[in-house]
Request: fold
Amino acid sequence: MKALQELAALDMGLDEEDAGDVLANLAPSDLVERLVSKKTGEWMYVFKPSVGAVVVYVKVVLRSDCVVISFHEEEDHSDEDH
Reply:
């Protein structure tokens, strides 16, 4: 739900299908880091692909299917609670 709200807040006219396309087209070069969630202990993967002229921040957890945790415009996340 958080990722859907962030997607809408991008104000880029992206919908769930567009987000799926971004995920399907992630490249190894889009991967920025892998970190452990402080809340669940799961590995999270952070990607920063370009969508048009904007670099977006995409955080993904792999479970039985892909769970997108965050999907928003890139910003400083150094103080973010993982």
